[in-house]
Amino acid sequence: MFVDRVELFVKGGDGGRGLATFRREKFVPKGGPDGGDGGHGGSIIIRADPNADNLAGLSMKKHWKAKSGDAGGGARKTGANAEDVILLVPPGTIIRDRDRGNVLKDLVNPGDELVAAKGGRGGRGNVHFKSSTNRAPRESEPGGEGEERWITLELKVIADAGLVGFPNAGKSTLLSRVSRATPEIASYPFTTKHPNLGIVTAGDAHFVLADLPGLIEGAAQGVGLGHEFLRHVERTRVLIHLVEPFPSDDSDPVRNYHLIRKELHDYTIPLSDKPELVCVSKAELTGADEVRDKLAAELGREVLLISAVTGQGLQLVVGRVAQMLAEIKRSEAEEAARKKPVVEFGTEAVVRTSDFQTTAVASITPPADGAAP
Fold first, then answer.
1. CA 20/CA 302 separation, integer angstroms
2. d(CA 165, CA 172)
């Protein structure tokens, strides 16, 4: 079962109560206060784990509560701290406060974590209240209450490239041919009901390819499972758009291409600006090359012809995607280098403080020859 959205109630454990006791020992008169502190309550921690692939493990239990800390003891003994409760989720999970709607954290990388509900602090024992004017304090503190809230976990698949297109365009078959993924494959539409991931190797490079469920007209407005499907496209860097040459409903493949592009454009976060590689699938069918030529003429750019059955064009697709991803990473590295603070001698130094603002600072004169910098 694939689950990519869950609502959970999380509560940190309460802190243990501090103790108000006095030292009672033979031959030690007026021993004084010796009440220990209470232990801290456990916290609810959500951590991104690369071995998790969806949120199904959290869908069967809605309430998660950590244990409370133990109460303090005599002889200044501190109560034991309660253990934290760690919930493992896949990288790419967004954590939101359900009631406020704000994003608490986006767990993008493996190991990223968020303390969703912090445990309460242990109360102080009466030994902390002793003073020159209060030699026998009888007060102590109760443990602090643990935080509690309702949160929403939403998984957005992290993949370098994503396969998009109408149902039955051959996306799952393509994924199974270029990787070791084993998605469900059948001759009827909507076989894929959730994203499938596979690792594709291209020479020395490799990338993650996602088989995204088939889209239909109106998906951007939530028709069918539109929003459930489209949000998984958000994190992909490159789109491989598969066009079926002879749809079973006798629809026009060129029109089908433009319908998918419209849904990508109309989504809440426009997705049509992502780099796209267009491929006509099922090249083994007679006349598929004519459909490819017609679509290429319509778009004014290259359209590949592939077949997941015979293997035609698959290596070319993999190579093109690897090249596109390498160019994107190179551009990102150049952009990051460009945004670093700049200091130039003999001219006005400009320091970039953000993507939208630059701050000019005083010019810096280079040191004279032989002088200390």
1. 80
2. 11
